[in-house]
Amino acid sequence: MRVFYAIEFEDKVKRYLKNVQDIIKTTTYSGNYTHYTNFHLTIKYVGNIYNGEYEELTAIMDDVCKNIEPFSIRIGDLGAFHKKNSSILWVGITSGKQKLKSLFKELEKEIVESGFEAENRKYRPHITLGKKIVFNNGAISDDLPYFDEPIECSKLTLFQSHRVDGVLTYTPLYQKSFSKGVA
């Protein structure tokens, strides 16, 4: 079973991301776009887990989340990771990056101490809109809408990444609220 830790979004955030995605699609030839139900903000990719490791990962979540205060982020930057002839297109974090990086570091520390692999690249918080995006000659519109509300981050979710009827699906397996400073 392949799993990762992430912040799950409310529908209003997903609707905004879908709207941006639809505008961008008009400037591309092709791409593998993130499905509406799969929009999330990855904190830590774990990978394949085996017998007994699920319980260990949920225990790590319980331990880490009790030491994290709920926080908010803002989104807005549009960017891409370029690979050969295509790109991974994403929406970036405009505020709250440090809180996300701290959460990543806490999870990473606990996970590595438990024998799981460390991340081999720098953590760059972002929300993936699509992969293998091939742009046509047109530029991305400057008229993309802004999401000008803070996004509350009050819990962490452990997701399973799997295919259901051939469709990539992220299924929540376990959630834990951030509880430091919460009465």
Q: Could you give a quick summary of the protein structure above?
A:
The chain is of the alpha+beta class and 183 residues long. The chain has three helices and nine strands. The longest helix has 17 residues, at 97-113.
Structure overview:
The protein has 183 residues and is α+β, with helices and mostly antiparallel strands. It has one domain (2-177): Alpha-Beta Complex (Cyclic Phosphodiesterase, Chain: A), CATH 3.90.1140. The chain has helices at 11-25, 53-65, 97-113, and strands at 2-8, 28-33, 40-48, 71-83, 86-95, 126-135, 151-153, 155-164, 167-177. A five-stranded antiparallel β-sheet has the order 2-6-5-4-7, with helices on both faces. A four-stranded antiparallel β-sheet has the order 3-1-8-9. The N and C termini lie far apart (35 Å). The mean pLDDT is 93. Its EC number is 3.1.4.58. Keywords: Hydrolase.
